[in-house]
Amino acid sequence: MKTAQTILHVGLDVHKESIAVALAGSDGSPLRYGTIAGHLQAMDKLINKLQKPGQELRFCHEAGPFGFVLCRHLRRQGYLCEVVAPSLIPKRAGDRIKTDYRDAEQLARLFRAGELTPVRVPDESDEAVRQIAWKAQQRLYARQRSSNGNRPRRRPRAHKKRRPT
Q1: Over the stretch 37-92, which tens digit does the pLDDT of each residue have?
Q2: Is 162 a domain residue?
Q3: Residue 100 near residue 123, CB atoms below 8 Å
Q4: Within 13 Å of residue 87, how many CA atoms lie on the same side as its CB?
Q5: What is this structure's pTM?
Q6: Tens-digit pLDDT profile for residues 88-141
Q7: Could you tell me whether strands 6-14 and 18-24 are parallel, antiparallel, or unpaired per DSSP bridges?
Q8: CA 44 vs CA 91, 121, 155: distances in Å
């Protein structure tokens, strides 16, 4: 007989140096787990601590400069990981306090409720092409700035008042 699996939703607020973690089980409100270092080895250590028999882990975090690498890493290990655009996260009116823990708790709670819209995670080749195009565009902008910066600026002419004749 197959036992029912419980699902643990893990909300992550990812930064360069740290990742804030919050957990939302099927019962109760989200719990603050803590902060871990911002590298993949720390994430693997967290997974080993959270993983229990009969429990499925599902991860969710906001899109950002470090998120796609983390998401691909978790998916390679067989975990469900969703990346959400920050602009698509529902927010209450007047809720202006933003902390890492509150963001992680909100992600875990909304992910458990199914209220988040995931974005597509590009694979490594797509991301490499985007990086090449971005660098080419930056070189073009830099060249334009340098060529425009060397020209003398033309002053706008002042309007002369006409004398009555």
Answers
A1: 999 999 999 999 999 998 999 999 998 877 688 999 999 999 999 999 888 888 87
A2: no
A3: no
A4: 1
A5: 0.75
A6: 888 877 777 778 888 899 999 999 998 898 888 888 888 788 888 889 888 888
A7: antiparallel
A8: 31, 20, 61
As given in the structure block, the two tokens for residue 18 are 């740290």
Beta strands in the chain (DSSP E): 6-14, 18-24, 31-37, 55-62, 80-84
The number of residues in the chain equals 165
Of 113, 139, 159, which one is at a domain's C-terminal end? Answer: 113
> What is the DSSP code (8-state) at residue 158?
P
> Could you tell me if 21 and 104 are in contact, meaning their C-beta atoms sit under 8 angstroms apart?
yes
In a domain, 158, yes or no: no
- Its domain, for residue 128, covers 123-150
Whose tokens are 């988040």? That residue is 116
User: What H or E segment, with its residue span, contains residue 4?
Assistant: none
- Which one-letter amino acid corresponds to residue 58? R
Strand residues in 44-140 grouped as ranges (E) = 55-62, 80-84
6, 54 Cβ separation under 8 angstroms: yes
